[in-house]
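Example for tutorial group B:
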C-alpha cells in the first residue's frame, strides 16, 4: 500500500458536510478514486471505439497477421 498525502482546499461548509457524510474517510476516498478511474477508462474506451468507427482500419491478410505475431514473439524473446 502507498500512502498519499494531499492537501485539498474546500469551502468550510463543504468540508464539514463531507466529513459528516464519511466521504473523507480513507476507505470512502479509495472507493471514490477507484470509481473515478473506472469512469475515465470507460470514457477512453468509448472515444477509441468512436475513432475506430469513424476511421476503420483496413483488414489484414493472414500473412500480415502472422508477421505481426512473429514480430511480437521475437520482441518478447529479446526482452530480458
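The residue assignment follows.
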Amino acid at each position: 500500500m502507498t500512502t498519499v498525502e494531499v492537501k485539498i482546499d474546500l469551502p468550510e461548509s463543504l468540508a464539514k458536510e463531507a466529513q459528516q457524510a464519511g466521504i473523507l474517510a480513507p476507505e470512502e476516498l479509495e472507493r471514490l478514486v477507484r470509481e473515478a478511474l473506472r469512469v475515465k477508462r470507460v470514457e477512453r474506451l468509448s472515444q477509441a471505439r468512436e475513432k475506430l468507427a469513424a476511421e476503420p482500419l483496413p483488414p489484414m491478410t493472414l500473412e500480415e497477421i502472422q508477421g505481426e505475431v512473429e514480430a511480437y514473439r521475437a520482441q518478447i524473446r529479446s526482452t530480458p
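The chain is about 70% helix and 0% strand. Compare this with the pattern of hydrophobic and polar residues in the output above.
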